Amino acid sequence: MRNSELIMMVLLLAVLSLCKTNSLACNEREKHALLRFKQSLTDPANRLSSWSLTEGCCGWAGVRCDNVSGRVFELHLGNPEDSGTSTLVGKLSPALLELEHLKFLNLSLNDFRGTPIPSFLGSMSSLTYLNLWGASFSGLVPHQLGNLSSIRQLYLGGNSGLYVDNFSWISLLSSLESLDLGWIDLHRDIHWLDYVSQLSSLSELYLPHCQLNNMISSLGYVNFTHSLTVLSLPSNNFIHNMPNWLFNLSSLLVLDLSDNSLVGQIPSTVSNLHNLNYLNLSVNMLIGRIPESLGQLKHLEILSIFSNFLCGPIIPYQLGNLSFLSYLDLHGNKLNGPIPSQLGNLSSLSYLYLYNNELNGTLPRNLGLLSNLVALRIGNNSIEGTISEVNFAKLSKLKSLGIYLTSVIFNVSHNWIPPFQLQRIFLMGCKLGPKFPAWLQTQRFLQTLTLHDVGIVGTVPKWFWMWASNIQTIYLGYNQISGNLSQVLINSTNFDADSNRLVGQLPHLSPNVVLFSIANNSLSGQVSSFLCQKLNERSKLRILDLSNNALSGELGHCLMRWQSVTHLNLGSNNLSGEIPESIGSLFSLKAFHLHNNSFSGGIPLSLNNCTFLGLIDFAENKLTGNIPSWIGESTHLMVIRLRSNEFFGDIPQQICRLSSLIILDLANNRLAGSIPRCLNNISAMATIPSAIDDKFSTLKFSIYLGFQRSSLGYREDLILVVKGRKSTYTNILPLVRIVDLSCNNLSGAIPIEISSLFGLQSLNLSRNHLMGRIPENIGGMKYLESLDLSNNHLSGEIPQSITNLTFLSYLDLSYNNLSGRIPSSTQLQSFNALDFIGNPELCGAPLLKNCTENEGPQGDENVEGSERSWFYISAATGFIVGFWGVCGALLCKREWRRAYFKFLNNIKDRVYVVTALKWSWVCYHFRRYHMISMFGMSKGLQPGRKGGKR
User: How many CB atoms lie within 10 A of CB 907?
Assistant: First the structure.
């Protein structure tokens, strides 16, 4: 027995010695070819250190030789770590052509510096495997690759700089089984599918992010009908129905058409794909109901149809038949009706996402029987009712629970011990309180705890702070949680307890804390005590929001201990003193709020060191001095809010350099001088607001919650005075465009350049000493919603172009010296008369003062004045021509002159005679009438009557 064991061991050692590649004789020609290949590369991690003349090439790293011939047939040089530290850098050397027996070449995830894929690779006819995935190639994919007649696996994807102009060469690769061209631009050849469909051996096709825009509705014949098992075409530009030929691919196991723009309904013929185990149609524009035929896909394991426009109920019986289904994601549709209880029959189900639909009813109790369930999210539906221990009876594997924006009420006993150990809890807008849930302390592996607006009332239990010290993210906002934080140590990376009833001094922070937000509470004490707390190591804090508390004192000089802070909000407290120069040590600062305090002095020069600053809110303090001119050097500034302080002097011209500025609020100060004419250089206000071009996103801070596509974080908010009232802006803040210079001592005219701010939504220049006319082109600011020019000394007509402001909903031109008729438009006449009051020469609706005929719009008055001028000019010209035409002739011709004056004498005599005769006739008749009247009265007769009395 022992002899046989010895014999076997000897034979095993002999075999191993034969298989040992080091003992193989290396082909010298191939060895030198590999060394030349190495010389064309940079190897910072020394991955090719074994490649030397003293060693046989068959023992080199990544080199595989044939056991018999010793010829190199495989090169495994892909980056094993997917990191820059072990990346090979350079270009491909033609020396590879000397490896005549090379079948396998893997150069993936290296860096070839944007060089083209060399065409000589098409001459390596022995290759069966070529992997250049993510190796930083660019340019045209060479047609010569069509000569690789033996190639079975071709992976060129992950090189976003590559493109294909003519895809016909792919049809020559008759042995091809697996093809990955992800992130390569293929849109230039509209016949791509015709060529690919000729590959009779093709089993796997990966074409994500290829800018494809058609899948051809019908194909005559598809060679890979019975061979294709994987079809992955996500993130392209398909804008059509799902083509019929797709559902003839009977061997298909994986179908991914996600993140396109597919329209129409999911065809019932989907049931033809009876071998399918992965179906992803998410992020499209599909409509209609989920087809019942889906229930016939007995092998389906993953079904993802989220973010479409599917409606109707979740089909109960059909989906309940998918016994192998482990992943079901239907979120972000318009599905309605109750959650079917048949989902409780899916014994293999691990992930169930139904949130953001229109589902109603109660949560089926038998979902609690899904013993393999790992993640459950049902938020933002109309689900109601009570959730008790029964709903979680068998969920021992549950790790993630998300229930939010529903009317669900949690009703579990105080001493309930859940069967699960959660890692992530996301409960928001449902009813969990009023008591703090005691069952939380049984969860030992929790990483994220979100109990946002869940109706918790009362004091934080004593066990909570010690238990929570190892939880990475905690959100407890918008409850009525009370308790004293003076002796608490916060160790969580992200901690948010906004809008509660917490009291005492600020807690101590661990250096690990990144986000700490405790706004809208009742915390008090000296802020300097918090800022000067002792830290054992460098702080990682980035977000610090202590706003809306009762903190007092000065900031002091300990801010330099928090150099990692990017968002600092100390607004609405009782802080005082000057802004310290140490603020300049916060080099990463992006947003700085000190509003509604009692700070005095000026803006420190050191703030100029904060070169990433995007938001300044120092409103409602006692700051004084000039607005510094260096503020124009802060090129990232998007918001300047300095209202209600005591700043004086001119508005610095340098402010026009801030091309990203969207909010400029300098109202209620003592600023003088004129409005800068260069405001039209602020390009962010001169362009139409767009959610796509959101530079404000640099001020956002998101935290991944561990749930699928879910995050919370910190968003900036501002209190702005728009349309005469204060409002808080948060979500739409990036789209706001405001200039408010009201309540200052500004003088001069409104610069016409300001009408070039086409994207501006609110302009307030009221309560200044502005003169002159309203700019004629103000109607070009078509997105203007609020315009306040009241309490100035503006004169002239209201420009007719103001009728073009169709979004205008707030207008105040009162108490100026405006005159003429108010331009006619449905919108302007809808405003109140008080918006035009205090302009004595102004008339027309909505004022009660009517306009007279000679009062009219400026345009009519100009025409009338022009006509009157031409009348006077014509009359004068006619008079001069007529006068000198007659008089000049009389002066020059004596005969005409004598005849003319003789004619005048004759006319004079005739007029005299006629006048004398007429006068004599009048006098005669007057005397006669008078005598008759006197005689008649003496006889008792009435004048003008015949006969006497009767």
Answer: 10
